[in-house]
Amino acid sequence: MRGWVATLLAGTMMLALASEPASAQQPRISSEAWAAYKAKFLDPSGRIVDNGNGNISHSEGQGYGLLLAYLAASPADFEQIWYFTRTELLLRNDGLAVWKWDPSATPHATDANNASDGDILIAYALALAGSAWNRTEYITAATRMAQSTLSETIVEFAGRTLLMPGADGFSGADRDDGPVINPSYWVYEALPVMAALAPSDRWQKLADDGLSLLKAMQFGPRKLPAEWVSLKRQPQPAEGFDIEFGYNAIRIPLYLARGGVTDRALLARLKEGMTANGVPATIDLTTGQPKTELSDPGYEIVNHVVACVLDGTKLPAEALQFAPAYYYPSTLQLLGLAYVGEKHPECL
């Protein structure tokens, strides 16, 4: 599984990621779609606003914003988002980002713990942009975050290599049912890039064990993974969390597809299990009943991407129309459209 990266060039600082001058880079996201996304979610300060979550910002959103700015071939917007990220979130002494920034609180950083998916997204986007645009300072920053992610949040337990959701609060020392993971934090496409930045065979083990765990996590009538999973014994929904396939989990099939994982049985099981009345939904794993049906095109595109990958099904016309309403599904829609446009144009 090589995702978007080909080989390591000189040392651990430079990547061969189909590099091209910024002026020649082919955008994977249209200028119109990116302009609409920016107008809705990008504050002039450079923060991505989660308007479905009290207008806070978080490391995940900054990472997504950086990745989308790269895919839109917009170095100026990338730098704007990166400025906010490095000045407002990179406050920890271990090289990782604080996960939450609240405009209504003082200080704005209201939780100093990190979120590992946000750190991976930020480092991944920095590496891609640094390579494509010859910005060595981006590669340097990406390298530090990759090294910190490896040392602070990737652990070995019972023969598996795991990604802790944060540096604190999820291990066996922190919780009676620990370690606890979130399977939606595995950003599969980024892991080969992280391995190039911070060389270790643990990245490949992390990818392999993430997939094996997804195959094993078949909870309830719909055989879906839980949002939060205890691995103390066999995988089971973690204590203290809703026993559900939740909003974060919706992105798992998209992450698999973008990471080059085309396991038909796994993708088909996830697609079927997370669908109710023709649209994705959050699912009560105990009963198998849908909790909230998610008809935003950004959620629906996940199923359309899976159908494209598995059967070559064309995306419906409504999936191609981008009218952003909420940060999270709008982000998923642009990631889905960028992926299909580059890897499966026959589905457009």
UniProtKB/TrEMBL annotation:
Catalyzed reactions per annotation: Endohydrolysis of (1->4)-beta-D-glucosidic linkages in cellulose, lichenin and cereal beta-D-glucans
Keywords carried by this UniProt record: Carbohydrate metabolism, Cellulose degradation, Glycosidase, Hydrolase, Polysaccharide degradation, Signal
InterPro entries reported for this sequence: 6-hairpin_glycosidase_sf, 6hp_glycosidase-like_sf, Glyco_hydro_8
GO molecular function, one term: cellulase activity
UniProt entry tagged with the keyword Plastid: no
Family of the protein in this entry: Belongs to the glycosyl hydrolase 8 (cellulase D) family.
The name this protein goes by in its record: cellulase
Organism: Rhizobium viscosum
Phylogenetic classification of the source organism: Bacteria, Pseudomonadati, Pseudomonadota, Alphaproteobacteria, Hyphomicrobiales
